[in-house]
Amino acid sequence: MNLPNAAAPVIIAVDLQERLMPSVYNTDEVTARAKVLLAGAAEIGVPVIATEQYPKGLGNTVPEIAELFTPEKNTVVAKTSFSVFGEENFKNALSQLHPNTLIFCGVETHVCVLHSVFNALEAGYNVIIAADAVSSRKETEKILALESARQAGAWVLSTESILFLLLKNSQHPAFKAVSKLIK
After folding, report:
1. Is the pLDDT higher at 57 or at 183?
2. Are 122 and 149 in contact (CB under 8 A)?
3. What is the pLDDT of residues 10-45, one digit of tens each?
4. CA of 164: how far to CAs of 12, 75, 146, 158, in Å?
5. Cα 108 from Cα 111, distance rounded (Å)
6. Please, are residues 157 and 104 in contact by the beta-carbon 8 Å criterion?
């Protein structure tokens, strides 16, 4: 079994939107964990691409997540495809970053996240899902989607595990800042 490889990572924040988040299971915890993941990514220097499914109808990224984005390090892509890979703007933004590992958070686990994970695996990326930073309207949908992703070859880890995987060791310059985020 290959260990998760977090070299050249990019975080993909899928559809954490104003009109979607209130309807998902455990929304407060998912939002909080996504916020920790994205704040940790900023400390470590990991780029983020956020997507918004039909923002005209579903709104933009929730403010507590959007406030973490900076134009020089983050990209927000509108989409109508369930998979992020169905959008040329996403593929163009991703290709500029040259990643080998994609780390997913967002909603809904069994639709947009899962479709994106399958496409990422097909494209040859290492894939990690932040299990505590994804959700669906129903808990069972989330559980089944995470199991399907795991069977397909994705790693399913906690936000804390992912951040420490990115840090690699306690000598990383962002170690103290990230440690404060997870406490």
Report:
1. 57
2. no
3. 999 999 999 999 999 999 999 999 999 999 999 999
4. 18, 24, 21, 10
5. 5
6. no
